[in-house]
Structure formats: C-alpha cells, structure tokens
Input
Amino acid sequence: MTKKIGYPDKWRDYSHVTIVKGNFFPNVVSASAGNYQYDLAKLNKPVDRSEWYTTPSTVTAYNNPSANEIVFPAAILQPPYFDNNADDALNYGGIGMVIGHEMTHTFDDQGAQFDKYGNVKDWWTKDDYAKFKAKTQQVIDLYNTFTVLDSLHVKGAMTVGENTADIGGVSIAYDAFKMTKEGHDTTKVDGTYTPDQRFFISIAKIWRVKMKDQFLRYWINNNPHSPPMWRVNGPLMNTNPFYKAFNVQPGDSMYLPPKDRIHIW
Ligand SMILES: [Zn+2]
Output
C-alpha cells in the first residue's frame, strides 16, 4: 500500500508499557520510561514525516515546525469547535480560530526561525524581523498587564508565542469568515445575535474552562499559553471588528485605544 503522508500506517506499540489498575504512580513511571525508549529508538534514523505527536482521540491541535505541518486530530473536529450543522459564524470562531492559531505559529517567535523545509534557518530580511520583534514586544508588554489572581499576572515573555498565535488566529479566522455568505450578513440569527457577534461568542465558548486557584497559579508559572480567559479577551481587545460588533467604548474594561491595538498578521 502506498504510504500517505500524514496518515500513520501502523498503530504504535505499547507492549513494553505496564499498566496496572489502581497503581497510578508506577503506571506514570512506566509510561514515561516507555516514551523515553520510544524517542531513543529514533536516534540516527531518518525522520518519520508521517508520525503524529498526538492520538486521534485527543482534543488538541499543533504546529510542528520541523515538518512545516499543522495537525488537527479527529477529536477536535466536534462541538464546540466544529459542528457540521452550525452556521459559519460558530465554526469560523471555533475551529477556524484554532486553525488560524496553528497557521500563525509558523510565523511566531519560534516558528519564524524555521524555513519551509523545517530546518532552522534565518530566512527573514533584517528589516522585517526587526519590525516583527518590535510588535511581539508589544504583545509581551500588554499581556504582562493582565491580572489573573490577586497580584499574579500573565507572564508576557513566556507566553508571547501563543499570544501572538491567538491574536493572529482570530484575525485569520475573521478574514476567512468574511468570505462566507453569512460573513457578509448583518441579520440577527434567531433574532438575538448578529453573525459577527456569534463569531466572537464562539471564540469565548471554546475556551470555557474552570480550574482551581491552585492550578491557575501552577499554570501561570509553567504553561506557555495564557489562561483561557486571556486567550479570549487578549486577542479580542486587539481586534477592531470586535469593538464594532459589541459597541465597545472608552471606559469599558476591554477597551484599548486604537493606537495601542496590536496587529501582527
Ligand atoms: Zn499554540
């Protein structure tokens, strides 16, 4: 059978991993050791470009700059991200935003260092890269101001790549949405929200996450993504159509003066 790029031709072998019911810690150790051996076995071998770094049943998406690929496993292609029966506003604000996010990673602070073949190579003009760096510094400065818990702030430098991808992702998804029939419409759906409002509400819907304060503290110090609420509010504060859709005015908590709104991609 011809091997199709992006389609695994075999299931991964987990036979050397021992899982015993009710034995959490040894199970984790065995799985970690199994992963380590799996990675070690790749040494000195050609890159397997058909490999996925996640299972089809995991709700996630990723950009792998070494292969210049973006991957969306089956599990994320369902509500609230994607619904075949939903209107375009919901789908473009959902999976559309996720796809735009992954596309933008190719041009964030990390992805920008890889060329189209997936090799680390500086392919930017000096001038473009200097402008890009100045804009990502704006992203760092803005996200540093976001308060998460009492005096705890988002760490702008640690999350800059993901925040850049979020801001770019919303902008790409919105542009794509505007190319649909519904994107041109201003009629309220079911008499409640306009298509643009539904697009932005859908972005908020995909990031509905609850977590304990203790976990949030851990997240802030260890996760390269901003906490879910700031993955919505951060990009939308920088998206002009959001201001129009909800008539956001000076004094509103998400208002940024036009000169301070960041537009990268
Ligand atoms: Zn990301």
Observations:
- The pocket of zinc ion is lined by residues 101, 105, 162, 165 (CB under 6 Å).
- The chain has two domains: 1-51, 56-260.
